[in-house]
Design brief:
CATH class: Alpha Beta
Oligomer: single chain
Number of helices: 9
Radius of gyration: 18 Å
Strand content: 15-25%
Largest sheet: 8 strands, mixed
Order of helices and strands: HEHEHEHEHHEEHEHEH
CATH topology: Endonuclease, Chain A
CATH superfamily: Endonuclease Chain A
Structural class: alpha+beta
Number of domains: 1
Distance between the termini: 40 Å
């Protein structure tokens, strides 16, 4: 695509770069402490009024984070998250932290969707890129994106897990643009559709994973890994 064509699709809007300082955890609070990005996202979530739509490869929420989302749901805010299923993830340690809390997330009123390893969107890509069909790779979620009220969005490196919240140096952009927010939200909603994701409330995504993966998941769940996931 030529630059002139790209420039025709540029959107001018208010954007804020959010980043943590390297070494944001000095050890004085153990494995906790948060950071600039964590606090910014928390504030943005607290301001939500209608809906929060999230795509993230990992969902390892602390009890405090679950309480935050549960509070949003009680206020009438719809919270939807699409993440990897056991069949599509390549990080069983992180998935074990999510799997332990999945029932609590559902009980909090969070709408969960777990991405299929061979979703319908893959077949559409295969049509456009024939080389993909030859290798038939497993598809997985890796984007870290959040849309609030269909008006603002966050795109960055932040995962919904304790490691991003307390340990890693994360960066992202908060974008105030209803146009871009709706476009990104539409893409996330596409990945949430039944042909692309399983819904734990109506189907057990774990049943679609291999026996080997389920055994490994059982092993990792025995270990107290959550603070470093």
């Amino acid at each position: 695509m030529k630059f002139s064509e790209l420039s025709d699709h540029l959107v001018w809007c208010d954007t804020r770069v959010i980043s943590d300082l390297p070494g944001k955890n000095d050890g004085s609070l153990g494995l906790k402490g948060g950071g600039t990005t964590t606090m910014a996202l928390e504030r943005a979530l607290e301001d939500a009024t209608t809906r929060v739509t999230i795509q993230t490869p990992y969902v390892v929420l602390t009890d405090e984070a679950i309480s935050l989302f549960a509070g949003l749901v009680r206020r009438g805010v719809q919270v939807r998250i699409v993440t990897n299923s056991l069949a599509s993830t390549d990080n069983l340690q992180a998935y074990s932290g999510y799997h332990k809390k999945r029932d609590a997330l559902l009980a909090a009123g969070i709408e969960l969707h777990e991405f299929r390893p061979y979703p319908m969107v893959q077949y559409r890509l295969n049509v456009r890129h024939a080389e993909l069909k030859q290798h038939n790779p497993v598809f997985a979620v890796h984007a870290k994106t959040m849309v609030i009220d269909g008006e603002s969005l966050f795109i960055g490196t932040f995962n919904l897990d304790p490691r991003s919240a307390n340990l890693n140096t994360e960066i992202g952009v908060q974008i105030e643009s209803p146009l871009l927010a709706r476009q990104v939200e539409a893409r996330i909603e596409q990945d949430m559709r039944p042909q692309n994701s399983w819904a734990p409330l109506t189907d057990n995504p774990d049943d679609h994973a291999s026996l080997g993966k389920r055994i490994q998941l059982w092993f990792w769940e025995l270990l107290p890994l959550e603070p470093v996931l």
